[in-house]
Amino acid sequence: MGTLSLTDYEEVKIPVPWGHISGRWHGNRTERPILAIHGWLDNLGTFDRLIPLLPDCVGLLCIDLPGHGRSSRLLPGLHYSVHDYVFIIPRVMKEYGWQKVSLMGHSLGGIIAFVYAALAPHTVDMIISLDILRPLPSDPRGKDVGNFRSFLEKHLVEDERQAVGNMREPPAYTLPELRKVLAKGSYNSVPPKDAQHLLYRQVAKSQLYPDRFYFSRDARVKYYYHMYMDDGFAAELARRIKRKPYLILKGSESPFVGPHCDEPMSILRQNNPHFEFHVVEGTHHAHLHNAEECAKHIVPFIRHHRPPNLTSWSLAGKEAQLSSKERRRAQEQFFARSKQSKQRSKL
User: Fold this and answer.
1) Residue 203's beta-bridge partner residues?
2) Is 222 helix (H, G, I), strand (E, B) or coil?
3) Active-site residue, selected from the candidate residues 102, 107, 189, 314
4) Known catalytic residue: 266?
5) pLDDT > 50? residue 287
6) Bridge partners of 60?
């Protein structure tokens, strides 16, 4: 079997009422792909190092969440929240006519996958969660209230700044400085050497300073509403995801899959031969800086739970015996015929 190509993809724009969701569809585009969702303040580039290690028996559709990467921002005056991000999954499904969805999410993307799978388990056939399971529990000491108040004030300031027409640019940096800023902002979870995988979709060239750039994502996403969740609520959501193929990878240096995940993880594991949990060496972004070790668990999981469709061009029948060059040529011919068929159907 072959692997996905990082450079062979189709740029997609999924229409939404406030604009579009930007994405890249890698690999097999004749079947329903795995939908990959990045973490907070990141973008689809977070999967760049993982993509070339994944099997090409299925495609991978990576998207930028609203306000991130190259997706449209929400309209002025609106606020970002985890609750609203959950609705992105059924919007993508509706656009492509999917009855089922396979999900891979990191951090915020994994929380979105967990919540959606609990709300609509009959539409989900597989979940891969990268260093996350559930939202953080509420802080009984009231720290959440302070954070919420601070974010509210900062969001209103950003609203006002954008309302005057972005009269001044955000702070601009050289590229080496940007790598350090991003690394520091991720609490060094993203090392500077890997920062370029995220930067290329979230910076714009300064109009004031030559050779400097600024972050182009919507600054309001920094102050989005976190979904703090009581333990009992998280456990109830887990109970609704019954015997579902569920893979969780935890970064060895990360606290995001901690004791607060014990109960829902125990529920997901109970009587479920399709549940897997593994610890991989690394930080919260282990899938980026230690993609090879993550792939050792993800690849067999995908091959087991999303085998090739016998009606597809890929790895079925005689095509399984083709060389990589012959398989590539057959793929290109198939895509060309498929494109011509779609163009004729629009006439």
Assistant:
1) 215
2) helix
3) 107
4) no
5) yes
6) 26, 34
Distances (CA, A) of 198 to 33, 60, 291: 22, 18, 15
CB 51 within 8 A of CB 60: yes
Q: How confident is the model at residue 339 (pLDDT cuts 50, 70, 90)?
A: low
In this predicted model, what pLDDT tens digit does every residue of 213-235 receive, in sequence order?
999 999 889 888 777 899 999 99
Interacting residues of 304 by C-beta distance below 8 A, sequence separation 6+: 245
Residues 6+ apart with CB under 8 A from 58: 27, 28, 31, 32, 33, 34, 102, 302, 306, 308
CB atoms within 10 A of CB 128: 26
280's CB contacts (< 8 A; 6+ apart) are 249, 250, 251, 252, 286, 290, 293, 294, 297
Q: 43-81 pLDDT, tens per residue? A: 999 999 999 999 998 999 999 999 999 999 998 888 898
Report the phi/psi class of residue 226: left, alpha or beta, with left for phi > 0 and alpha for psi in -120 to 50.
Answer: beta
